[in-house]
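Example 4.3 (complexes with small molecules)
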Amino acid sequence: MNLILFGPPAAGKGTQAKRLVDTRKMVQLSTGDMLRAAIASGSDLGQRVSGIMERGELVSDAIVIELIAERLPEAEAAGGAIFDGFPRTLAQAEALDRMLTARGSRIDLVVRLKVDDQALMARVAGRFAQSGRPDDNPESFKVRLSAYNAQTAPLLPYYVDQKKLVEVDGMGSVDAVAAAINAALAGPRG
Ligand code: ADP
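Answer. The structure with adenosine-5'-diphosphate bound is encoded below.
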């Protein structure tokens, strides 16, 4: 079982991915976490991506596709991957499909957490100070949101065509959203 958690920045994808890891034998594959780990380690990769991430722009497809390729076998062996923050472009989605097909596998379900832009801005405004992330500030958040709307949201029709997309209201409490995701996973495609 492989699942994509889809939605704008700060929609709660990471929080929900961690809940699923706790309740199911699945592995969270967050490209954002992998990139932050690379920055923290001081690696060449980390140095190349830190400015891009700080500004809120997307890093190159090749970099994140490679990060996912490295971790995919382990995640599938454990019981399945929860993709969090990946894919973010059509090229990434197509590369993911190719990687999975080559392994005789597939994406089973794409859960879209629906939260509108205005609500998101209001939701994160109070959190910028505590987050500790250099891209959690009003300017970078705006860039992240525009990157989502321009480059990532256009992926939705790709998954609608594949009949894999289910929508969940992302504005409820953590528990309410988790319950809605579990219901989607128990549904006909889950
Ligand atoms: P959020 O969903 O809150 O924006 P993430 O941790 O998923 O947080 O991503 C943080 C940053 O990492 C992004 O703004 C981008 O710079 C980079 N990043 C993460 N995943 C990808 C990806 N799949 N493609 C390109 N850039 C990515």
